[in-house]
Design goal:
With about 170 residues, the chain is mainly α. About 70% of the residues lie in helices and about 0% in strands.
């Protein structure tokens, strides 16, 4: 339990700093922006109570909003992602999971984990970009931004997860 709290706190701080200091300034072709901080929500232990997941998701969204000057956009999107996380885990993996399990390539399988990440990222990004646009003025450009950001965010999260698994195998993490 203490290990999960320490890991979660570390992930929270590191991914917020990476997002705020580096990734918020990246707009690939003025279209795609990666959001790596979602990895924190994705990697919360599976048996974490839904209220705690929603609160922690709200909190990380609030911190990102505070540093990004985006009033409530990330908070709303993260809260929604946290709220649908448990049903998505049940959908992709079922109810029979170990008590201290954390979503990973090992637990879900590579394909299952990628589908789980895409689902959470897609829900977050749809909410975030629809709030940001507040209109469907240019729906094709909006859909392009959403799709490109989903792809880029999913790719970064899966790369971080691959390094995380690699570090655990070599005994470094």
């Amino acid at each position: 339990m203490i290990k999960h709290i320490l890991t979660g706190t570390f992930n929270f701080i590191v991914f917020v700093l990476i997002q705020v200091l580096i990734l918020n300034n990246i707009h690939l072709f003025r279209i795609a922006t990666p959001f790596i901080y979602l990895y924190f929500i994705i990697k919360l232990p599976i048996r974490t109570h839904r209220t705690q997941v929603v609160f922690l998701s709200f909190l990380i969204g609030l911190v990102i909003d505070a540093f990004s000057n985006t009033p409530g956009m990330h908070t709303a999107a993260c809260t929604l992602a946290g709220a649908v996380r448990a049903p998505l885990i049940r959908f992709f993996k079922g109810d029979e999971l170990p008590g201290e399990a954390v979503p990973s390539y090992r637990l879900f399988g590579v394909g299952g984990f990628i589908r789980y990440v895409i689902a959470i990222v897609a829900i977050h990004h749809l909410m975030l970009f629809f709030i940001e646009s507040l209109t469907l003025f240019d729906p094709l450009f909006l859909l392009l931004r959403i799709a490109a950001s989903i792809f880029l965010s999913t790719l970064l999260i899966c790369i971080v997860e691959a390094f995380n698994i690699g570090a655990k195998r070599s005994g470094e993490f």
